[in-house]
Amino acid sequence: MDRFYITTPIFYVNDVPHLGHAYCTVNADAIARWHRLIGDSTLFLTGTDEHGAKVAEAAEANGVTPREWTDRTSARFAEAWRGLAISNDDFIRTTDERHYATVQQFLQKIYDNGFIAKDTYRGLYCVSCEDYYTADQLDGDKCPVHGRPVTEMEEDNYFFRLSAFEDRLIEWFEKNPDAIRPASKRNEALSFIKGGLKDVSITRTSLSWGVPVPWDEGHVFYVWYDALINYLTAIGYGEDAEKVAAWWPNVHHLIGKEIIRFHCVWWPAMCMAAGIEPPANIFVHGWLLVGGQKLSKSMAADGDAPVKLTDITPASLTEEYGVDAVRYHLLRDTPLGTDGEFSIEGLIARYNSDLANNLGNLVARVATVVGSKCDGVGPAPSPTSPLADSASTALAAAADAWERFAPHEALEATWRLIGAANAELEATEPWKAEPGTVDDVLGSALEVLRIVSLLISPAMPATADEIWSRIGLAGSPSDHPLPAAAAWGGYPGGLSVTKGDPLFPRRKATA
Ligand code: MSP
Fold it and tell me: How far is the CA of 252 from the centre of ligand 1 (A)?
C-alpha cells in the first residue's frame, strides 16, 4: 500500500479562520480524500501555530493569558474545519506537550551538530510576519507584506548557520527539480538562495511564550523554528523511528506563496542540519483575493464598507450555500498555484451552471424518468454505451490531475462526463420513448451517476453519498477504491431509485 502524507501550514491563532485559510485546507482535504479513495494509507495533518509575539500581543489585548487565548482560538479552527467537512487525521497544536518534546530534540540535534551558535542580533522586526527585515527590503519604513511599522530590536540570540547550507541547498534543488512546484516558485526560492544566505536568529529572550531552549534557560525558540517542526512531531520524531521512516521524507507540504522562504529554504536546511532528508514535495498556492465592489456591497453590514477576504468566515458561506457548494467553488475556480478573485457572484454563477444545471439536473432527470418509465427500478447499464468511453476518459484525466495537485482540472474532467450524459439523454429523449425501450440509456446514465459519485467524493463528500444512495447503492462511494470501482458496468441494476428534493436549487444572481 502506498503512503501519502499531506500537510497544511499551521494557522496563527491570533486570527479567526477565514476564507483564505479555508482555500488551502479544503484543497489539502480534497487531495487527501483522493488518496484515500485510490487506496493509499493517508495522513492529513493540519493545526495551529500558537507561540510568538503576535499571539502574546493578542492575548494581552484581550486580557487573558496566552494559554487561555490559544485554547479558545485554536478551537475555532477545529470547529471551522468540522464545518467544511475537513477530514484531517491529526490536529497539531504547537502548545501540545508532544510538540515541545520534538522541537527540543530536533533543535538540540542541530546544536550538537554545530549549526547553532550564540551572537547579538540587531534588526527591524515585523510582528505580523514574525520576521526581521533589512532596511532595503522595507516598503518605505513599513513591512512589505503587512504595511505595518517595523520595530528596531536587539537581542542576544542563538543563530542557525543557514549560510553553511547555501551549496547543499543549491545541489538539492538541482537534484530534485520537482520538489518545489510550480516551477516559478521553485525558481523564486532558488534565486533567493543564490542571492546569498545569512544566518538566522532562532531564539528570543524578549518574550517567554515559546518552547524553551533546552541548553540555555531564559531563551525560547523563535516561532517559525518551532512551527516548521510540527510536520515531524505528528509522525513521532524522537519517539518512533519506524513511524518517521514510514512517512518521511515523502511528505507533501501545501503552502501559500508568502511563506516560501520558510518552507523552501529554512526548512530543508534545518532538516539537513539535523541529519534527515528535506521534505520531498512542497506545493505553493496563490492567494484568494477580493477586489469586486459588488461583494463589498452585498456582504457588508452597512451596505457600503469594503469587505476584506479575511473578514469572510467559511461558516457565513456554508450556511447560505451549503458545505459542498463552497468546497466545490474553492476547488474549481482558483487553480492551485495562481491567485484567484473571490466573489459571491462567481460562487453563484458556478453553483448555477455546474451544480444546479449540470449535476443537479442529471440526477433529477434520471430519477424522474426511471420513475416514470421503469417503475422507479434502475436498469443495468449497456456494455456498449458511448458513455463508457467518456467515463474512462474522465477517470484517467481526474487521476492525472489529482496527482498534479490540480483539483480544478479533475473536476473539469468529471463535469465533461456529466455533460456527456446530459447530452446523451437529450439526444435519445428517453422521457418520450415507450417503457421497455429505454433500459440501456437509463442504466448507462445511472452508471454515469455511480462513477460521478466516486469521482466527486474527494471534493463533495456529502453530495457523493447522497447520489450514491438515491440510485439505490448501500454505503458510501468512498468505501470503494479506485480505479477498480470506476470500471464501467458496476451498477448492478434492479435497485430502487429515489427522486428526492433538488440537490442544488437554483440561486438568484445578486444585484
Ligand atoms: N503560522 C504560519 C505558518 C507556519 S507553517 C509551519 C502562517 N500562518 S497564517 O495563518 O498566517 O497563514 C497560513 C496559511 O494561510 C498560509 O499558507 C497562507 O498563504 C494562507 N492564507 C492566508 N490568507 C490567504 C488568502 N487570502 N488566500 C489563500 N491563502 C491564504 O503563515
Answer: 16
Helix axis angle for 387-403 and 407-428, nearest 10°, is 170
Read off the pTM: 0.93
Residue closest by Cα to atom 12 of ligand 1: 11
Quote the ligand 1 centre to 470 CA distance (angstroms): 39
**φ, ψ for residue 498, nearest 5 deg:** -105, 140
- Answer whether 278's CB lies under 8 Å from 172's CB: yes
pLDDT in tens, 165-209: 999 999 999 999 999 999 999 999 999 999 999 999 899 887 889
- pLDDT tens, residue by residue, 237-284: 999 999 999 999 999 999 999 999 999 999 999 999 999 999 999 999
Whether 170 and 30 map to the same domain: the answer is yes
Beta-carbon-side half-sphere exposure of residue 130 (alpha carbons within 13 Å):
26
Residue 331, SS3 per DSSP? helix
CATH (domain of 155): 3.40.50.620
Identify which of 358, 374, 328 has the alpha carbon closest to the alpha carbon of residue 499: 374
Q: Are residues 413 and 280 in the same domain?
A: no
